[in-house]
Amino acid sequence: MLGFFKRDKNKIAKDGEDHTVDSKELLGEEVESTGREVKTKLHFPPGINVGQEERYYYQFLNNELPLLKENQISLSGIEVEKDEDDSVVVKAFIRNSLPKAIMFNEPVPLLLLGPDEQVLARKTFNLSVFGELPAESSLPWLFTFEKQFVKVEEIPQTDWKLAFELKKEKGPHALDLEESWEKSLADTDKEKLAELVKKMTPPKPGEVNFMGIQARLDKDGSLHTTLLIRNGSDKNVKLEQIPLIIEDASGECVAEGGFILDNFEVKANTSKPWTFIFPQSLLKKEKIDLSKWKAYPPKGA
């Protein structure tokens, strides 16, 4: 840690940009605000011996930082470099404009962002290691993204910033329609599907499952099944192939087949309807009772 506070004597300015959030977004605490602006004071961790020249340097940089509004937490990039082992080391101020000391008791996910908000690196840090961050203070700190957390080959020396990765508030589970369905379905049918998705219990977080909504036998003897593909994940899911088994009211498997999908994606926290057609050659019995039915992938699929 002592090496961190050493500086390049040829540099007198910081290279990174700032990322500032309300303390409620990060700590979940409601704090009354007067709207005043805060000049944060330089702070070093207890027990760290910092040379006079380095202290002057960080004090100069701190004096150049913009004022914060009350009850904000900010990351202000100083410099970034890539080590011989391809890890990326970021020097930055972590700043607290609250009128009280704060403690990061939970791990904090951080992003290293480049031009156009490109994610250069992502890692979760234990910020409790430096103890309390005093009221209205700026702490210079070292953030190391090991190679496995770095997503690009080249790290820009300008137009970058260290940022908090905030959890987006999850909205209600919603309907996701493929463009072809959006164009072909009547508005009343879209409304019925949206209402159906709204009423159903959403899938568990991270779960992807199937729910049958319509099944019929066509004149040519094929079985048409329309399913809702339900994505409970907070990320979009791409599906290239879906193996399916269909059971009728008897509980017997009446059809089984695999379907190749072209660029098929179900958006995060949505359900997408899709129709799967089993030709007559894939049906396993002549008389099929569709008064009750279900669809599911084979075990291990």
Structure write-up:
This protein has 301 residues and is mainly β. It has four helices and 17 strands. It folds into two domains: 163 residues, no CATH class; 123 residues, Immunoglobulin-like, CATH 2.60.40. The strands form five sheets. A five-stranded mixed beta sheet has the order 1-5-6-9-3. A four-stranded mixed beta sheet has the order 11-16-13-12, covered by helices on one side. The longest helix has 13 residues. The relative contact order is 0.12. This is Accessory Sec system S-layer assembly protein. InterPro entries: Sec_acc_SLAP, SLAP_dom.
Q: Short summary of the structure?
A:
The chain has 301 residues and is mostly beta strands.
Class derived from helix and strand content: mainly beta
How do the helices and strands follow one another from N- to C-terminus? Answer: EHEEHEEEEEEEEHHEEEEEE
Strand residues, percent: 35-45%
- Please give the number of β-strands: 17
Largest sheet: 5 strands, mixed
Number of domains: 2
Termini, distance in Å? Answer: 49 Å
Distinct helical segment count? 4
Mean pLDDT: 90
List the strand order in the largest sheet: 1-5-6-9-3
Which bin fits the share of residues in helices? 10-25%
What's the Cα radius of gyration? 28 Å
Low-confidence stretches: none
Q: What general form does the structure show?
A: elongated
